[in-house]
Amino acid sequence: MAWQSGITKRKKTGGKKRAYRSKRLRDAGSAPLQSELGNTIRRVESGKSRLLKVKLFSDNVVNVSDPSTGTTERLEIRDVVENPANIDYNRRGVITKGAIVRTDEGLAKIVSRPGQHGVFNAIVIKEE
Residues 61-105: pLDDT tens digits? Predict the structure, then answer.
């Protein structure tokens, strides 16, 4: 069953709302994608206006930028340190925007949206 983002079924007062139209294909969405550490798996899906979305299921490399030097390197991900988005993502090792991963060069914070952009981009964070 597809994800539906139509109108809510109840009014503020608790009464039922009546649909003024039937469901449209444009209202349908998809389940959230939870990217993980592993071999590279991507899927291309079509979006609205001929837009192509590259969805990243799993990958083991990350593009790490260092803002102080202005350089970018492609490094291998060792493990997922933490994911502040969700406690359950911490346990399962899901990588989303804001997750902190350990690379060969140190810790890095993911700044891209892997389910939307199809790649892990990160910036270096200083270990304290």
Answer: 999 999 999 999 999 999 999 999 999 999 999 999 999 999 999
The model's pLDDT over 29-58, given as tens digits with 9 standing for 90+, comes to 888 889 999 999 999 988 788 888 899 999
Instruction: Record the tokens describing residue 57, joined without a space.
Output: 């299921």
CA distance 8 to 14: 11
Tokens of 15: 């009464």
Fold of 33-124: 3.10.290
